[in-house]
Automatic annotation (TrEMBL):
<comment type="pathway">
    <text>Purine metabolism; IMP biosynthesis via de novo pathway; 5-amino-1-(5-phospho-D-ribosyl)imidazole from N(2)-formyl-N(1)-(5-phospho-D-ribosyl)glycinamide: step 1/2.</text>
</comment>
<keyword id="KW-0547">Nucleotide-binding</keyword>
<keyword id="KW-0436">Ligase</keyword>
<dbReference type="InterPro" id="IPR036604">
    <property type="entry name" value="PurS-like_sf"/>
</dbReference>
<dbReference type="GO" id="GO:0006189">
    <property type="term" value="P:'de novo' IMP biosynthetic process"/>
</dbReference>
<keyword id="KW-0658">Purine biosynthesis</keyword>
<comment type="function">
    <text>Part of the phosphoribosylformylglycinamidine synthase complex involved in the purines biosynthetic pathway. Catalyzes the ATP-dependent conversion of formylglycinamide ribonucleotide (FGAR) and glutamine to yield formylglycinamidine ribonucleotide (FGAM) and glutamate. The FGAM synthase complex is composed of three subunits. PurQ produces an ammonia molecule by converting glutamine to glutamate. PurL transfers the ammonia molecule to FGAR to form FGAM in an ATP-dependent manner.</text>
</comment>
<keyword id="KW-0067">ATP-binding</keyword>
<comment type="subunit">
    <text>Part of the FGAM synthase complex composed of 1 PurL, 1 PurQ and 2 PurS subunits.</text>
</comment>
<keyword id="KW-0963">Cytoplasm</keyword>
<protein>
    <recommendedName>
        <fullName>Phosphoribosylformylglycinamidine synthase subunit PurS</fullName>
        <ecNumber>6.3.5.3</ecNumber>
    </recommendedName>
</protein>
<comment type="similarity">
    <text>Belongs to the PurS family.</text>
</comment>
<dbReference type="GO" id="GO:0005524">
    <property type="term" value="F:ATP binding"/>
</dbReference>
<dbReference type="Pfam" id="PF02700">
    <property type="entry name" value="PurS"/>
</dbReference>
<dbReference type="GO" id="GO:0005737">
    <property type="term" value="C:cytoplasm"/>
</dbReference>
<dbReference type="GO" id="GO:0004642">
    <property type="term" value="F:phosphoribosylformylglycinamidine synthase activity"/>
</dbReference>
<dbReference type="InterPro" id="IPR003850">
    <property type="entry name" value="PurS"/>
</dbReference>
Length: 76
């Protein structure tokens, strides 16, 4: 079984990497981009019997900084 965890900065948290991407896109002529939020995707190969609750614990303890980031889990 696999899990995919999508981690993004929470709304209201400054995203300097996203701003740099937005600025670079504008410099390349892509003028229609008003804002960019950059995140990360973490894919986990899980042993049989490892459930979503365990993945949630992983996120809370290591994979996401829950003070400034939110996450979404996809069990595949």
């Amino acid at each position: 079984m696999k899990a995919r965890v999508h981690v993004m900065l929470k709304d209201g948290v400054l995203d300097p990497q996203g701003e740099a991407v937005r600025h670079a896109l504008g410099g390349m002529g892509f003028s229609g981009v008003e804002s960019v939020r950059q995140g990360k995707v973490i894919e986990l190969d899980l042993a049989d019997g490892t459930g979503e609750d365990t993945v949630r614990d992983m996120c809370e303890k290591l994979l996401a900084n829950t003070v400034i980031e939110s996450y979404r889990i996809e069990m595949l």
